[in-house]
Structure formats: C-alpha cells, structure tokens
Amino acid sequence: MARQQGHSPAAGTPTLRKTFARLGPFVKPILPRLFCGFLCALAAGLVALAIPQVLATLVNDVLHPEGKSSAVWYAVALIGGLGFLEALLVFLRRQFVITPAARLETQLRVRFYAHLQQLPVAFHERWGSGQLLSRSMSDLSLLRRWLAFGALMLVVSTVTVIAGLSLMFSASWVLGAIYLAGAIPITIKAFHFRSNYRAASRLSQDQAGDLATAVEESVHGIRVIKAFGRGRHMYDGFNSQAKQLRDTEVSKAKTLAGFILFVVAIPETTLGLGLAAGLWLTAQGDLSVGALVAYFATAMVLAGPVENMGMLMGMTLTTKTALDRHFEVMDTQNTITSPVSPVTPTQRRGELELRNVAFRFPDTAQDATPTLRCINLLVRPGETMALVGMTGTGKSTLLQLVPRLYDATGGQVLIDGIDVRDRDLIELRQDVAVAFEDTILFSSSIRENVLLGAPEYEKEKLDALLDEAIDTAQASFARTLPESLDTVIGEEGLSLSGGQRQRIALARAIAAKPRVLVLDDPLSALDVRTEEAVTQKLRSTLAGTTTLIVAHRPSTVALADRVALLKDGEINDVGTHSELLGRNEHYRYVIASLEDEESNIISLTGGTEA
Amino acid sequence: MSQHTGVANEDAITLSLEERKRVRARSWKLLAVLASTQKKMLVLTVVLVVISNVARVAFPLLIAWAIDWGLPQVRNGNWAALGITGGAYVLAAITAGSLLGWYILCTAKISQAMLLDLRLRVFRHTQRLSLEFHENYTSGRIISRQTSDLETLRELLDQGISELVSAGVFVAFTLISIFVLDWRSGLVVMIAAVPIWLLFGWYQKRSEVVYRESRVVSARVIGSFVETMTGIRAVKAFRKESINDASYSKVAGEYRDNSIRSINLFGVLQPSLVLIGNLSVAAVLAWGGFRILDGQLGVGVLVALLLATKRVFQPVENIAMFYQSLQSATAALEKVSGLLEEEPTVIEPVKPQPLESVLGKLEFKDAVFGYGDGPVIMDRFDLTIPAGQTIAVVGQTGAGKSTLAKLIARFYDLRSGSLSLDGVRIEHIANNDLRRHVVMVTQEAFLFSGTVAENIALGKPGASIEEIILAARAVGAHEFITALPEGYETDVNKRGGRVSSGQRQLISFARAFLADPAVLILDEATSSLDIPSERAVQRGLQTLLGNRTALIIAHRLSTVQIADRVLVVHDGHIVEDGTPAELISSEGRFAALHKAWRDSLV
C-alpha cells in the first residue's frame, strides 16, 4: 500500500561538477589535511613501486658471490627502511583523512537534522520519516567513504595512469598511442554508463528510503494491522517493495559489471594489439627487446589503477546522487520563519483575532474550495472560546494557524493586535501553547514532558507549576507510577493508555503558562467523570488565559464563555451556548442531540427518567 | 547472571564470555542459514573468481611466451606468429574481463538475495511479535535493524566473497611458487604468519567491542531522529528544537567518535600488515643474501623469490578488509538475530481447531490477566456473552475496559483460566480465522500511506470499489470522502495528516464495516466524532451489528443506548452487569455515571 513519497522525480538533475562544487565550503577547511592525505597516498604508491626496482638493482649490482657481508646488511637495511616508510605513509594517509571526513559527515548530518526541524509541518506531511532517515544516515556515510577513500584513490589512480602512459610513450610512441586508443571506446562507454548508473543508483536510494518508511509505518500501525489480521497484506506490500529494491540493485550491479568488463577487457585487448605491433617493431629493429619488456611491465602496473578507476567512478556517481538527495532537502525553503525585525508586543493581554483568514493546503488544486475561506473571529483577553463544527470543517487546521504550524494563505492572525508573522517565532510559541488531539509525548520523564514548554522558573516554582498542571489535568495517576513523576514515558518508556496520554499532553499545555491556549478536543478520550473533574479545574486554572478550544460535546462547550460555530470554511455564528441553541439551527444539529437522545433514553429506560 | 535471550541485553557493549559465545554463534548461524539458499550461486561465483584470476595470471606468461617464441618466429618471417600471440592475448583479455563482469553480477545477486531474505524475515517476525513486545521495543530500533544493520551486512556481502576468494587463490599460488623456488625461504615467509595471527587476534578483540558499540549508538541516532520527525508538531509547538539539536549532535558525535575509533583500529591493522610484509621481504633478502655470498643460491632465484614475497602480501590487505567488514557485519547480525530470537508471547496454535461458521459466543472462565510478570490487572472473573449480544463496557480510564477488549482480540493471552469463541478456546484458533471473525477498532485510527479506498480496503483485501463505497456510506463517511480533492483516490499522506482525526475514525469504521466480522470490538472508536457523525455511525452500527456480537467501550454513554447489556468495570473487576434500564434504576455506579452524563448534555 505504501508508495513513493515526497521526493519529486529528479527534474533537471544538477551536473556532477555542480553537485560536488556545493561541498566546497564544507571541504575547504579540511582541504589541507585531505591534500596531505593525498600526498601520502601518492608517496606510498611510489615507494611500493620502487621497492621491486630497488630489489632488482640490489640483487644484480650489489650482491654477488664475492661480495662482503656488509653489503648484505646494507641492502637489508635499505629494503627494511623503505618497507617501514611505506607502512608509515599508509598509516599517515589514514590519519590525515579519516577524522576530518568523519567530522564533515557528522557536521552535515547535524545540520540536516536542524534544517528538518525548522521545515514546516506541511513539509513533514509529505515526507515519510524513513525516507528522510535514509538521507541522513546512508547517504551521508557514503559521502564520508567517498571523501576518505574514493576521491583520494580516484586522484591517485588517475595520476598513476597518466605517469604510466608517459612512461609508455617514452618507451615507444607507437605502442603508447595503441594503448591510449583504448581510451576512446572506454570514454564512449563511460558516457552511457554514467547516465544509466546514476539513474539506477538514485532509484535504489529512493526505494531504500521508501522501504524504511514502510518499516516505520508497519511498526507505528501495528495495532491496526493486528486488529484486522492484515499482517499478510502488509507483508505482501513490503515484499513487493523489497523485491523492487533488489531488482534495482541487481540491475545497477549489471550496469556496473558491464562497465568494469569493458574497463578490464579493452586495455588488455589493446595490449594484445600492442603485443603484435611490438613484436613486429622489434623484428624490424625499430624497438629494443628491453623497451618492449618495459612497456609491458608498465602495462601490468597500470591494470590495477585502470580497473580501480572504473569502480571509483561508480562510487563517485553513487555519492553524487546521494548528495543530490541531501541537497534536495537542504534546498527546501523554510516558509515559516521569524521576520528580520520581529515586533514585540508592548502589552500582552492575550487578545486573539482572526481577520479574513483563509487557508488552503499547499498542494491542493487552485480551483478546489479552500479549507478555510473567510474567518473573522475575536477572542477577548482571558476569554474561553469554543470552536464547534462538523468533523472535517477545519477546526484543527484553524488552531494550527495560531502558533504558525501553518501560515494562513490569506488574511491575518493577530495576537494583541500584532500579526503572528511579525513576531519572533520562539516568542510567539512561548505565548501560544497547544494540546493536540493525537497526543505526542517524548521519551523522557513525565516531569520533563509536562514542563517542556514551561517558562524558566527556579526549581520550587517549577515544582509548583508541575503540581498545578498535573492536578488540573487530573493526571495524578502519574504519581502512582513506579518512579512517580520521574518515570520515563513515551516510546522508550512506559506505555500509557489513550486517556492518560491525553491528560499528560493537557498538563503540558497548561504548564507552558501561555497567553493563548489552543486546545484541540483535549478531553475526547476521557470518561465522563474525569472529564467533569478536568472541566471544573480548567475553569479556574484558565481564568485569565485566552483559550480557543475545539469541542464536540456540550460538556466541553460548558467550559467556554462563548462559542464560535464553523461551517463551510466560515464562522457561521458567535454567541453563548444558550444564545446559539436558541437561534441557530445548524448549531442545534451539531451539538445538541439532547432531544433526540432524550427520546431514545426514555424509550430505553421505559420512561423512568423525568 | 542468567543468560539474556532476544533483545533483553541489546545495549550491552561488553558481554560475559559465555554470553559472547552464544551471541556470536547465533549470528554465524543466521549468516549460514541465509547463505544456505545461495549455495549454487556461491559455488559458481567461487569458480568464476578462480578462473578469472587464472586468466589474469596468464597475461605475463603470454608476454614471456610471445617474446621467447613469437619474436624469433617473426624475425624468421613467420608473420602468422604475430596473429597467434596477439590473438591469444586478446582472447585472454576478453575472458578475464567477461568473467570479472560476470562474478560482479553474481556477487550482487547473492548479496541482494540474502538481504531480501533477511529483510523479509525481520519484517515477518516483527509483525508476528506480540503487542507486549512492541510496547517496549521502539520503532526506532526496528527501523535501525532494518536499515543501518542490514546496510552493514550488505558491505560484507557485496565485496566479501570475491575479495576473500581471489586473495586466497592468489596467496596460495604465490606461496607455492616460493616453496618451489626455495623451500627454506618459504619457511622464512611462513614465520610472518605468527605476527599476522597475533595482529588479527588483537584486532578481532578490540574491533568486536567497537563494532558492537557502533550498532547500539547508531540505533540511538536513528531512534532520536525518528522520534523528532514523527512528533514534529509537538516539537515545534513546544519549542523543543534547540534541546533536540543539542541532544542529537551529542549522539551524532558519539556515533562519529565510534566510527573514528573503528576506522583507526583498521588504520593500525593495515599499515602493520604492510610492515610485516616488507620486513619479510627484508628477511628473505638477508637470508638469501648471505647464501649468495656462500654461493649456495643463484642471483636470479633470489630476485624471483623477493618479488614473489613482495607479491604474496599484497592481497593480505584485502583479507584484512574482508575481516573488517566481517566484524562489522557480525555485530549487526548479533542485534538482528537477537530480534529474530524473540518469541511472540501470543502463540499461533500448531494444530488449529477449524472454525466453520462463527456465531460469536464468547466465554471467559476463571480468567486472570496481568501484563508479563507484572501485577494482576483482571482478577478471576467469569463472563459469558451470548452470540449476537451487544455489550457496552463502561468504567473509568484505566479501569480495565481496554484490557477486556484486547483479550478478546487476543492481543494478549490470559494468565490463567480460559476464553473461548463458540466453545473453542481462543488459543486453539488459527490467527487468520480469529482475525476474520473478530475485529477490533481502536482509539487511534491509524491510516497507512495510500489512498482512502486502500485504507478502507484493509478491512477486506480485494474488495471492489462498490463494496468500499457501500461501507463508507453505511458509517456516514461517504460525503466527506467525495468532497476530498480526488475522492476515494485521495492520498492520505503521512499519518493521515490531511484528514481530521474524526474523519480518520470514520475511515477506520468503514474498514471494520467492510471486514464484516462475527465479533466486533469498538474501543473508544467514536471519541473524536461530532455528535451528528456519531449519530450516523450509530445508525450504521445498528444495521451493522444486526446479529453480531459486539463489545463497545465508550466514555460517552450515548453509545450505550444501543446496547443490550452493560458491564461496569472498576479496578479490574466487573462490578455491575445488566440491561441499561436495570442498571439505571439501581443505585450503582452506572446510575451515577448516567446521571453525570445527562447533566453534561445540558
């Protein structure tokens, strides 16, 4: 059932150079270390090449049956020294490169996370968290490996190949030219390979991300899956997604294998031609046997780096698409930000006004009816206003405009006469607290969860605040938990029932001590008794706090001074509960089921109730 | 200390000897099981790797042959020799290249097949595990097992086999050639095995701990990432961003330090191997050099010996690389195999009793329930629900109403006593049968990504669109669904972000309607609905319930009116049981609740 989410198909993918150029600012500070690492790698390669040469000369020129034993010691010391040098260079190469590469990876990862936290809720609704996770973990670890190993070795291999080619040309320009001719088909092939492999690696990364999202959903929705016994169905869906990923990976490997085949077979084939040509030249006397041997010795040495270049090109392309995925998210503009010069209200009374507010979800069609059309509503300081309307009329959406979880697409939301978009975002959210209907608690103690948004008081005052919030929300069950208020809850802790979670979330909103409190049907999972107790407490606690509360029941409406009725994206009527009951038919329809139920109950109870 | 099984000790870095042995064995076994389905491909790959290496060894021989035999031939005017030598070389080139390409593909196929196998195993297993497990094991951990741990295994599988085989072949051939040239020098080279062995031992010991830690830390990084992203609304509303940034950069930093540690361990191993190789060359040089002075050894032989010695150590680095990914993958497999070792507490019967047509009679006898080893939640009770009865369960939050529902849905098993459906003990019913006949709609109406129609169809896979629409109509969801941008084909996005919670409940109601079970459990399933919608649902329910057995848990007593019977649960006991009218006229808890509710309606 899960499908590709969020990520748009790579429209106008940036070029290889452009993508890597974006790394510039991050790589710049570690460039000297990377360069040192490169030098060490090159030097280690040279020493490795030199050792056999030195051995040959030592054995041929220095050691002979009539020689002195000191000559032997000299040779051993020389070889031992070179050997030690090689090991040291290999060691240094890693030392230079590893730490900065790992730091860079982590730096980008933390930056990515911070950026995601800033991106608006609308963004997160489009993107599965598994997809984001794969970009934060696998994609960036690819980058680290490429930086610490791939890029370095690609340069070293290229340098080695160029050096080898010039050696070949110096031995015989004809033979050199024959070997170099092999580069033509390889380049053509590389061109195809590049586009195919890039597309395949991008696809596999996206599919892996979607697969992670599917895992996440299968865990978060486990209760529904179990309740309906749809494990098999989910498994089938996951199975086909996982198989798609496998197929992509295999076809990606096929592309790579085809290219490596070419990269190995072509140079060796040109060597076969070179061999024939070399023999002919030698037979003609245009080439010495020594030069012919030198030519092939060089070719043998080059075989490794040439093959590596093929592999490393693949690695570079994979890293490129991983980086594209990374920057795709990083380039997403944050549409909800603090203004350059935020306005701080001179007096904080907590007056909330919605003026001609309209809202349309960002990805809905232009001609579709907006969720909210023209909302005009004034909540006086200290007033509690209930928001009533049918399921899906946009009550929750309206609430989310106040702390700017979404921005209104038309009109203004004003607190104390200041547009919320002119306020500093942190300050605004200090002034506005929310209790959501689907409660989100974090893996920490009850105390930390409740005091999450609380002002920075000293400890005693915080404790008092905590007690007050817990008592108001009727969450004192928390005190009977194993470690009382220090019990860890949330995903990594104790699991609570729906009603319990809702009360903790309510306590959290209360403890934030906001000017404006926004409550989204905060009592829906409570039983009548508890609801009654919460309602009574809330009334006194909320005195002086401007409150906008979504209500579905008369019992919740009872909390409010006035009621606003939402219908078809507009405020249909505002007044007290009894006023609306008296004059508004739609209100009666939405909230007052009394007559209807009364008759039912009477018939049910045989009319014993008066 | 007793042995930990499953995921119990997952975060431990240092293990007792005994435990380490068990955990390692478990990982190897899993790897062996995964590999066992790929035997043929594995053999093919090994053969390809060997032949490909032989073909490559042939290149220098071909050149030597071309110069020794071909050149004189050409000089004598035999031009055909040019074609023969050149052609032979080209043939070898194409063979080597093709074989290489082929085994790269084979390796990928094996690796992907094993990963797919493991991925599906883990998925199936986590789905099979009981709710009790999921309540303690976070989603972040499962995601981390399925992503980062599997990624680690992939690194081993992608390169491991071919690297190990080609390195092994190469070392073996070269070593043999050394012994053939001069067995005494061969022995000198063999001495190098001692420090190499010690070095690997050192590396194994140190890296095992570091890699195990790496798995734990990476799960932590993933866990905190997932928690933030799934709870982003609350993060923003309560300004948790900066706290999160700080704690995330701390775990990300730990992960980085761990990576650096593991790479640095390898950074000691690899140059040390290079050093040992080079010193061995020096040792062979010393040993051979003095024998040259004595005239016991030819110069040419020594050159050959020295070059072979230098070469024999080249692939040792590849072996080290293989060993590194093996260590890392084993650490990951420790975690994955631990998860797979977990047993569901609610066990599917081996020989299920078949259920023909289900009427829906439920019977608890001497039932006692408590979570795990925890305190007793529901103490010894008997309850018979005749087929077709609609029962309302009321009581305070946390009184045990949901527990009753979860027992009937078999999310948990009773500690003692029995629960039967139509006289068959619920533990003896096949899971598929049970789920077809008993369906529960929960408080949290979770929507999966996909369309509205797909979400409803979850109640009955393969349902036609007509059936789906019929179900939606029955619960009063049709109107809002058709008002959505693309009607039934509207994508609900992540977590149903775009539909309101009330609408989500309507969708999950339609799901239950479509499922058409004999026993329906509604656990607070209408809490977010407005009154008209709730009324519509109730009308739908009356037709839906018909002759079904239903257990309705509701805080709103409005739902109770359609019930034949009410159970009042308090402190894990059923304290009142009767028709609504009976209970209202008595002086009990229900009468009081009912009065409070009626007052709340005004």
Automatic annotation (TrEMBL), chain A:
Compartments where found: Cell membrane
Q: Which UniProt keywords apply?
A: ATP-binding, Membrane, Nucleotide-binding, Transmembrane, Transmembrane helix
Which PROSITE patterns has this protein been placed in?
ABC_TM1F (PS50929), ABC_TRANSPORTER_1 (PS00211), ABC_TRANSPORTER_2 (PS50893)
The membrane spanning regions, by residue number, are: 30-51, 71-92, 146-167, 173-192, 256-281, 287-306
Q: Which organism is it from?
A: Paeniglutamicibacter terrestris
Instruction: Kindly give the InterPro entries that the UniProt entry links to this protein.
Output: AAA+_ATPase, ABC1_TM_dom, ABC1_TM_sf, ABC_transporter-like_ATP-bd, ABC_transporter-like_CS, P-loop_NTPase, Type_1_exporter
What are the GO MF terms of this UniProt record? Answer: ATP binding
Q: How does it sit in the membrane?
A: Multi-pass membrane protein
**Locate the ABC transmembrane type-1 domain: which residues?**
37-318
What Pfam families does the annotation carry?
A: ABC_membrane (PF00664), ABC_tran (PF00005)
Concerning SUPFAM superfamilies, the annotation shows: ABC transporter transmembrane region, P-loop containing nucleoside triphosphate hydrolases
Q: In this protein, which residues make up the domain named ABC transporter? A: 352-593
Q: What is this protein called?
A: ABC transporter ATP-binding protein
TrEMBL record, chain B:
Q: Where are the transmembrane segments?
A: 41-67, 79-105, 164-181, 187-203, 265-290
Question: From which domain of life does this come?
Answer: Bacteria
Q: How does it sit in the membrane?
A: Multi-pass membrane protein
Signal sequence bounds: none
Q: Which InterPro entries match?
A: AAA+_ATPase, ABC1_TM_dom, ABC1_TM_sf, ABC_transporter-like_ATP-bd, ABC_transporter-like_CS, P-loop_NTPase, Type_1_exporter
Q: Which PANTHER family does this entry report, sorted A to Z?
A: ATP-BINDING CASSETTE SUB-FAMILY B MEMBER 10, MITOCHONDRIAL, ATP-DEPENDENT PERMEASE MDL1, MITOCHONDRIAL
Q: What is this protein called?
A: ABC transporter ATP-binding protein
Q: Which taxonomic lineage is given here?
A: Bacteria, Bacillati, Actinomycetota, Actinomycetes, Micrococcales
